[in-house]
Amino acid sequence: MPSDLEIKILSAFPDRWIVESHLPSKEFRGDLLISNIRKIKKAVSSEVKVPLSLLSYSDIVSKKRTEDGLVVAFTFVRIKVEQGPPEVRIEPVITTSGITLKNMKAVVDLFITDQFDNEVDINMVRLAIEKFKFRIENVDYDALENAIKQVQLDHQPMKGYILSQGTMPDIGESAEIEFSFSQEQVDSQMNKLMGATKVFKDDLLCSISSPTKGEFPGKDIFNKVIPPLLGTSVELKTGKGVVQSLDQSCISECDGIVKVKKEWVQRNDVMGFERKVFHVEIDVEPIRIVKGSEIDSLTTTDHVEIQGPLKAGAKIMTSGSIFVDGAVNDGANIRSMKELVVTGEVFNSDLNADGSITVDNNVAGSTVRSNEDIDIKGLAANSTVSGRDIKIDEVLNSTIEAEEGVTINRVSGLETGDPSKRTRIRVGVADFMQNKIDSDKELIESSRESLKRLTGLLGEKLAADIGVKPVQTILIKFVSQEKKKGHPPYSQEQLQSIRTLIESIEPLMMLIQEKNESLDVQREKMKNIDKSKGVVLIKEKVTVPIDIEIGGEKTTIEDRAGPMNIKLKFSEEKDAMVADVSDAEDTPVAPSIQTEQKPEPMESAAPPGEDDKSTTMDFIFE
Predict the structure, then answer these.
(1) How far apart are CA 261 and CA 250, in angstroms?
(2) What are the strands, taking DSSP E only, across 397-461?
(3) pLDDT tens digits for range 551-597
């Protein structure tokens, strides 16, 4: 510092200093000021022990003239930056095929200063590099020095700066898995409607090609040779209903529905390299194929395919999916824990599923309930339909209850003058969830009663063997037990009926457990639901009055052609949400939910400052 330029620290705050200095020049010229600030900054850096690169001039606090110049007070501040030592790291490289190669690059994080406020320079980084014995001849020190200068200039750290890199080995072609399903199976009605793939005993399910090896080796940063590598492999796990041959092909052991699970997993190969492996699990879930005319009561854990119309009064319950290739006749009761598909008409029956329900025809006088989506491709007449999102071609005198939305092509019927005969559409999570809870509670109660009767028939000791011992063993013990009681010999038909009853006990137990768990989840959801959520879309016309309710608000639509909108909007007069009907100029491609600001509150309304918004729901008729 020049002898004619002295500083005096007037005050010191954390990372901020006010410094006074006497400037000999009587003129407060800009160029002289900048020159002197540089000198003062160096003096302050030395005085307060802060690196010059981290010290910044802020402003002039005061200035006053003296006989021989100016006394000026300046503010200097410490620049806040990330600090750290230039520590070298050896890192792996992950190839595009997911193979982890160790020791493939040396990197360093470059900061302005280390943790002790020492400015990082090329010598400091060089010392950090020399601790390692990788190929330092590959380090470009000129480029490294320029990087350090750039960090000082930008006041920004440069992390992961690459000092040295290895050379990659050649990697071969990856293995491939090819699934084999015949065109006839893929195009079947069941596959189209259920999204499932039915296979038969001895069908080829899949085959796998082997990975190939690369040609050229590589080297890591320590000059260690890395041999050419195999491509990505496929790890195949076969489950029930599948057998694997020596050539990596999979064959179905039974008629059923094939299920495939695919995921990437980390594995160590024979050479010790960690790599991603394509893990595939394949199994065939049994499907029970029965004629609809032969079913009185069936409870099972299998998927069920019913060929031909289902006889009147039949009862079916399964933890799998159900496919009915035909009509469902009066009094039938079908319950599936997964998907349910019916290709024919449904008459005066109950259809229930935890998964989606598809009816490829008309529904009359029936109840159709699903925890997921429902698609009825024909007329729903005098029926109750309840699901998450519902699509129906035509509705007549029916009750439609949806969690999220309803899409209907036509609402038709005869005007009777009796409001109780009208079609009713209710959209909203609260109603749907409550109906689902009530339905599940009813199912649990009826299942417990059935289970109680069945276990009472077997006796406590044999009932305890359910799920532990084979059904055949339990059947033999039961017959022996009854024989000792003096029961005459059972016919083959009676034995088959008893076997069916025994087979139904385990599915009933599973159903009760799963439904109890489901009830707990549903009750929790009920606490945080949006009661006004929902959309209705009617594509063509309404020929008779229909009642619509959403979020507790109701409206009636008279005979009217679309398109038109029905919205729930805020009414200043009623100070509440009300239904509003208006013509729609344009028909949107899909229904939408909008949120709009209510009008400003009146004096009697809530105090200003409260969040006062309402949800607008569109019922769209086009």
Answers:
(1) 14
(2) 399-412, 423-427
(3) 666 777 777 665 555 555 555 565 555 555 555 444 333 333 333 33
CB-side neighbour CA atoms (13 Å) of 104: 14
Q: What is the mean pLDDT of the chain?
A: 79
526 three-state secondary structure: helix
Residue type, 505: I
Identify the bridge partners of residue 100 per DSSP, sorted by sequence position: 94, 274
Classify residue 66 by burial, with Cβ atoms within 10 Å: 0-12, 13-18, 19+: exposed
3-state SS assignment for residue 226: strand
Q: Which amino acid is at 294?
A: E
pLDDT tier at 517 (50, 70, 90 boundaries)? Answer: confident
SS3 of 494-518: HHHHHHHHHHHHHHHHHHHHHHHHH
At 249, the amino acid letter reads: S
Q: Could you give the residue ranges of the DSSP H alpha helices within 179-228?
A: 183-186, 189-194
Q: Under a CB-based contact definition with an 8 Å cutoff, are residues 416 and 432 in contact? A: no
**pLDDT tens digit sequence for 253-271:** 988 888 888 898 888 877 7
Alpha helices in 115-206 (DSSP H): 122-129, 141-154, 183-186, 189-194
Query: Whose CA is closest to 501, among 262, 300, 248?
Result: 300
The dihedral of CA 574, 579, 581, 587: what is its sign?
positive
Q: Say if residue 146's pLDDT is above 90.
A: yes
Contacts 24+ apart (CB under 8 A), 436-442: 436/369, 436/371, 436/386, 436/522, 437/519, 437/522, 437/523, 437/526, 439/352, 439/369, 440/515, 440/518, 440/519, 440/522, 441/519
Which residues, in sequence order, are CB contacts of 468 under 8 Å at separation 6+?
none
Which of 255, 135, 133, 265 has its CA nearest to residue 202? 255
How distant is the alpha carbon of residue 545 from its chain centre?
A: 40
Strand order, beta sheet including 242-244? 177-179, 204-208, 250-252, 242-244
> What is the average pLDDT across 126-149?
86
- Rg of the chain on CA atoms, in Å: 39
